[in-house]
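I'll show a sample.
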Amino acid sequence: MGNRGMEDLIPVMNKIQDAFAHIGQPSNVDLPQIAVVGSQSAGKSSVLENFVGRDFLPRGSGIVTRRPLILQLHPAKTEWAEFLHCKGKKFVDFEEVRKEIVAETDRETGSNKGISSIPINLRVYSPHVLNLTLVDLPGMTKVPVGDQPPDIEMQIRSMLFQFITKPNCLVLAVSPANSDLANSDALKIAKEVDPEGVRTIGVITKLDLMDEGTDAREILENRVLPLRRGYIGVVNRSQADIDGRKDIKSALASERKFFLSHASYRMIQQFSGDFEKAIEGSGDSIDTKELSGGAKINRIFHERFPYELVKNIHGIRVGLFTPDMAFEAIVKRQIDKLRSPAVKCVDMVMSELTNVIKKCTDPIDKYPLLRDQVEKIVVEHGRKGEAKSKDQVKTFIDMELAYINTNHPDFIGYAAKGWLTISNTGFMKGISKEYWFVLTAESLSWYKDEEEKEQKYQLRLDNVRLRDAEAGFMSRKAAFAIFNPDQKNLFKDHKALELAGENQDVIDSWKASFLRAGVYPERDTSEDKGLQGEIGTLDPQMERQVETIRNLADSYIKIVSKTVRDLVPKTVMFFIINNVKEFIGQELLAHLYSGGNQNDLMKESEAEVVRREEMLRMFHSLKEALRIISDIDANTVTTSLPPPVDTGDRDLLDSYKPPGSTRQPPVPRAGHPSPTPPSRPSRPVPGVPSRPDSAPSVPRRPNAPGKPAPPPPIPGRPPVPSRP
């Protein structure tokens, strides 16, 4: 719950509550509780069950809750319930809990709708609950039924007042959405005990049962009967859902789907979802031309911010001071330079987050005042997180300056340990022996074994140089050598010490450790002399200390830079990004409700009004056009199409010629003898009757079987050959 003292107080208060209930007396102690009030069948029990995530309360028509039920929720690893009147008996099946509530109610009030003010105390232990105390109260009624007394209304009011008049009782006033809010019994009685609305939360149930075309948006936007803490919309399970064994988890998923799909309720939820998708980069519409908000913030963390760090620590200038003091002074100077890029990273993220917020409010452009108010509230909240992030980042830098931790596991220091082989101390090169070597800032020692008890030798590193070497001809190991450039013996009668390792990586690591300790590769003698001539005589001891400080400072700054690069993004995510996401999902609506007149926020822009009027005109025009088209369609007499023409009649058409034209004999078909035309009669052939100024009529296709025979052919006309 966030308040540790309250978390410790609630179990104590629950025990006091049980003690009062055990003697059958109401508690006069002002205990922190949440009381659920409302009329009969308003959905109070459903709201209460959502707190637990289980079905355990009696259901039915009429008055079902006839005794107050004090429900004490306790977080636990397993899920079970316990009644005060059944002390020690665990109820694992919540259907048995329901039956026990009904049985205990009947034992006190009878089975014919009687009521009692003696509460039933129930404890529920579950991993899915918060440490809360809730009270389910009988629904307000006016007409007595069954064994109820004539003054049932006053008795229930008196029972409710026993709980909701206490200043520490939060009132959940439950009202169904499909009834007039002005007639809400829950809001009326809550107003009597809490006229300022400080501890009243309105709960609107049954949103899915409202008449089609209506919604409770104005109620949820706190514009009808305003409450300081606003209203919460709830979609309850129907009786069919309960009979179908639909559990609470599925009901919550259906409720979420309802709010996200309903045009009147999804605006703020859509903004919250769009913002989260923009940050996470999980949206459906991905811009391929530029990076999204989340990707840009990621780029700031991992590209821009490291670049700014490198710019500020590039190049370390050392002076010839005492080594320890010089190291600390140089490191602190470089650490302080990290402050500016760290703060700049916070600024860049906040700037990009502001752009994301503005982009996510684009879908509510048609309500410009609402859009501006949402942007203002969310950006202001982000600015608060920005200030906290900057303070935290500066604190990180101050912490790094407060203590220079040279014992950090990643700090190179001076030391190195490991097995190496001395390959030039035998009778001939290639005969070697392995020792345990330890390198410090001042010396190189080697021992017989890792326990470092028997030291073989210790070699001072003053005026020692490093060079590459070759292992023996019989060895495959990599090697290097240390020597004295003054040609003095380095070890016994040897001017150099050749060391070999298992592989080149081991040798490279050792060479790097020697470099950090101030042992450097050999240089050209003429180059050294020329350099000495320019700057004077170099003190080898001083030169080694200066180079050592440079390497150590570089190593430590890398550690600090790595730490800052890791902590700054985490700080920004905690104080700004995640905080804004949580604020949008949980507190934005409350801030919008408390910001003044919600009617002004929901005023449409002039462009939207013009657009809607234009769409309405277009709608009515199209509707009128459709009506005209429908009338034309209704008044038109349609006839069936003629049957398709058989291609066999094409010969008949070809054989017919108008009067006065020259007839050509038909072309004989392959495989068929040409018909012999009959002799032309002496009288002229009569012309085909036709209407004036019209084309000759086309012969009709032969009738199908069963229809009247066609008229006889015109006399004197040659017979038309039939199609095979």
Remarks:
- DSSP finds 20 helices and 16 strands in the chain.
- The domain at 31-261 is CATH 3.40.50.300 (Rossmann fold).
- The first helix runs from residue 4 to 22.
- The mean pLDDT is 75.
